[in-house]
Amino acid sequence: MNANFDLRDRIFDVAEANRRMVHTARKVGCSAKFAGPGGTIVGTYDDEAQYVALCEGMSNIGCTTVTPTVVSV
Q1: Exposure class string for 51-62: b at 16+ Cβ within 10 A, else e
Q2: Which terminus of the chain has a smaller tally of CB atoms within 10 A, N or C?
Q3: Is 59 a residue whose pLDDT tops 90?
């Protein structure tokens, strides 16, 4: 996941606001990359403490964190 974003960041002019979201997630140990053309990221975290730190970091830069509910069909 991190390698995917790093490659995109090298070959494409990523907006600073979008780069800030990814780097904010990485600062607390999460992996992160864009979920599409920009403005939204997707990532992984290891435990609830890391998730709390992620939410706090994202809130500090004006972003909202959402945890999806996965349902099997």
Answers
A1: eebbbebbeeee
A2: C
A3: yes
